[in-house]
Amino acid sequence: MRPVRRIAIVGTGTIGAGWATHYLARGFDVVATDPAPGAETALRAYVEAAWDAVTTLGLSPGASPDRLTFTADMREALAGADFVQENAPERPEFKVKLFADIDDATPPDAIIASSSSGITMSVIQTGCRHPERTVIGHPFNPPHLIPLVEVVGGKRTAPETIEAAMSFYAAIGKRPIHLRKELPGHVANRLQAALYREVAYLIEQDVLDVAAADDAVSWGPGLRWGVMGPNLLWHLGGGEGGIRHFMDHLMGPMAEGMWPTLGHPQMTPELEQKIIDGVLQEADGRSIDELAAQRHAMLLALQAVRATYERTGDALQTVRS
Question: Is the dihedral of CA 216, 218, 223, 229 positive or negative?
Answer without folding.
Answer: positive
